[in-house]
Specification:
Blueprint: E1 13-16, H1 32-37, H2 39-45, E2 49-52, E3 56-57, E4 69-73, H3 80-92, E5 96-102, H4 111-118, E6 130-132, E7 134-136, E8 139-141, E9 146-147, E10 155-157, E11 163-166, H5 181-197, E12 201-205, E13 229-230, H6 239-251, E14 259-265, H7 270-277, E15 286-289, H8 313-327, E16 334-336, H9 345-349, H10 355-368, E17 372-376, H11 398-409, H12 414-424, H13 462-467, H14 472-483, H15 486-494, E18 496-499, E19 507-514, E20 517-524, E21 530-531, E22 540-544, E23 556-557, E24 562-566
Parallel strand pairs: 1-2, 1-17, 2-5, 5-12, 9-13, 12-14, 14-15, 16-17
Antiparallel strand pairs: 3-4, 6-11, 7-8, 10-11, 18-19, 19-20, 20-24, 21-23, 22-24
Helix pairs in contact: 7-8, 10-14
Bound molecules: alpha-D-glucopyranose and calcium ion.
Length: 567
């Protein structure tokens, strides 16, 4: 098979959540024309690779991850013509575009599923996973005890029949039956359609889950109060998955100069990830893991108080190192702090009080650690978690909604639930992009369902930051330009990586070294000053997020102070 030209090796990626990026027609929902109108901004910023979250026809039960027609742009976002224009305009600016391809499930409103329901004998029925329920004490119960990601059984009953269909996400997202070769061909055909249209690649959604445990027997994992067992191993990274992906590669991916980035989530080890993305033997180009996104104890932190949520710098170092060690030589790696499924990184690892300093520090780690960096829209201006005051405000996420219902039944107070959601909900990252300081932030003339974070009125917006050369936004631009310089990129991507002050629990510091040249990053990840025993010698300060050095010299780092040095 022909070896790919790995053009993404020098790319800086940018993730767009289309519903809240830019509205062009005043209906309060972001759209493709809106994205096109902001391409000049993205080009100015210096990013050259987009991942746009799903834009295809969808009843929006899970905000577009429930696709009802893969070949039609969601009318909420515009038309197929608008998409072609977006592609053309992006390419004209040297920006490549990846679409988010949902291939584990469709919407229940997809014509395949509708036909499958109507006609149990249809071919479409075999595209999904239907099983007969079991009889227990004279009652019909689901085929097994598996629990899905959105806090329900993975099974829903089909009307009054004895049949159930499987869905590991919401009831409106039936899983596709990848074991069926005919279904696989249907999926490949959709992929070819977009590649032929000029799309540069795919972010492959929920990729880890395509293959299910074939016996569909009960899990032995502990049962919840409804009798369901949460055991993702039944539908994650199963051996058959790799066969499907090899075929996908052979039939489609290898025939185009495209980038394929899989979302494989929390269950994967660095070694395991190589089965997906090894440059020689893998079937796709890189995989996203979640290991660096939750190193502060916020995940599942319902019973924890705010004071217990603290960046675990040691865990971050361990995770970075672990992934680098196992993968750097054999696979490309993506690196991100935030996406549409996580709370804002500024609220996770930074600080509202030190917005500019901590935002700059985080941008430096993101851009100079290793791998292909992906910036989540709004992080470049320091957008932070929302200030909503009740659980209902987070119900735009079906997962949250189901979870809250459960927590209420478990007797949690409204206050605790709200606080938890403000800390962890993915709605935090789904508020409108803050373009300016007008009431709707320049996003639209109309309020979006997830109200804006009001700090756009206090200067956290693109327009204000553009006026201030010392802003986070200008810093991002400068840092991106630096990262894209060949010698810097070569060091980051191919240099030996070594951590400094490894036992220091507050400071993240590392060196890339190659052909006698060094790039050193030192970052205080705390909101208090930290002293270092020594400070490395260098030729030049390439980036620094403060003016001048601290009184005690460089051996003392101010809150969130960070340096990028050339040595
Ligand atoms: C992925 C998406 C997430 C979605 C889920 C189901 O994890 O990133 O937003 O809810 O898949 O499609
Ligand atoms: Ca619109």
């Amino acid at each position: 098979m022909k070896k790919k030209n790995r053009w993404w090796d020098r790319s800086v990626g940018y993730i767009i959540y289309p519903s809240t990026f830019q509205d062009s027609n005043g209906d309060g929902i972001g759209d493709l024309k809106g994205i096109t109108s902001r391409l000049d901004y993205l080009h100015w910023l210096g990013v050259d690779l987009l991942w746009i979250c799903p834009i295809f026809a969808s009843p929006m039960d899970d905000n577009g991850y429930d696709v009802s027609d893969y070949k039609t742009i969601n009318p909420l976002f515009g038309s197929n013509e608008d998409f072609k224009t977006l592609l053309k305009e992006a390419h004209a600016r040297g920006i490549r575009v990846c679409v988010d391809f949902v291939l584990n499930h469709t919407s229940d409103e997809h014509p395949w599923f509708q036909k499958a329901l109507r006609d149990p004998k249809s071919e479409e029925r075999s595209y999904y996973i239907f099983k007969k329920g079991k009889k227990k004490d004279g009652q019909l119960v689901p085929p097994n005890n598996w629990k899905g990601f959105f806090n329900t059984s993975v099974w829903s009953r089909v009307g009054e029949s004895e049949d159930y269909y499987l869905h590991i996400f919401s009831v409106k997202m039936p899983d596709l039956n990848w074991e069926n070769p005919k279904l696989r061909q249907k999926i490949y055909e959709i992929a070819r359609h977009y590649l032929d249209l000029g799309v540069d690649g795919f972010r492959l959604d929920a990729l880890a889950h395509l293959a299910k445990e074939p016996s569909f027997r009960d899990s032995k994992a502990p049962l919840d109060e409804n009798g369901w067992a949460y055991d993702p191993s039944r539908f994650s990274n199963r051996p058959r998955l790799y066969d499907y992906l090899d075929e996908f590669k052979k039939e489609v991916l290898s025939k185009y100069p495209c980038l394929s980035v899989g979302e494989v989530g929390g269950g994967i080890s660095p070694k395991g990830s190589l089965r997906f993305s090894d440059r020689e033997k893998g079937s796709i180009d890189m995989v996203f893991n979640f290991d660096t996104a939750w190193c502060n104890g916020a995940f599942g932190s319902l019973d924890r108080d705010d004071a217990e949520i603290r960046t675990d710098v040691m865990a971050l170092k361990r995770n970075f190192l672990r992934w680098h060690k196992a993968c750097a030589k054999r696979s490309d790696l993506p690196f991100y702090w935030c996406n549409h499924d996580h709370p804002r990184v500024l609220s996770q690892y930074g600080s509202l009080q030190w917005r500019k300093e901590s935002g700059k520090m985080l941008s430096m780690i993101l851009l100079f650690l290793y791998g292909t960096p992906w910036i989540y829209n709004g992080d470049e201006i320091g957008m932070s978690n929302v200030d909503y005051d009740k659980p209902e405000d987070f119900f735009d996420d079906v997962g949250n909604k189901n979870h809250v219902m459960q927590l209420r039944r478990d007797g949690y107070s409204e206050e605790r639930i709200t606080n938890f959601l403000r800390r962890c909900s993915r709605v935090n990252a789904r508020t409108p992009m803050q373009w300016d300081g007008t009431p709707m932030g320049g996003f639209s003339d109309k309020e979006y369902k997830n109200r804006m974070n009001r700090n756009h009125l206090e200067g956290v917006n693109v327009q204000e930051e553009l006026k201030d050369k010392d802003s986070l936004l200008w810093f991002f631009k400068k840092a991106i330009a630096l990262r894209k310089r060949k010698w810097v990129n070569d060091l980051v991507q191919r240099g030996g990586l070594r951590f400094l002050y490894r036992k220091n629990e507050d400071v993240m510091a590392f060196v890339h070294e190659r052909d006698g040249r060094k790039l050193i990053l030192i970052a205080n990840m705390r909101d208090f000053p930290v002293d270092l025993p020594s400070f490395p010698k260098s030729k030049k300060v390439l980036l620094h997020n403060y003016k001048g050095t601290a009184k005690q010299g460089r051996k003392s780092l101010r809150p969130f102070e960070a340096y990028l040095l050339e040595a």
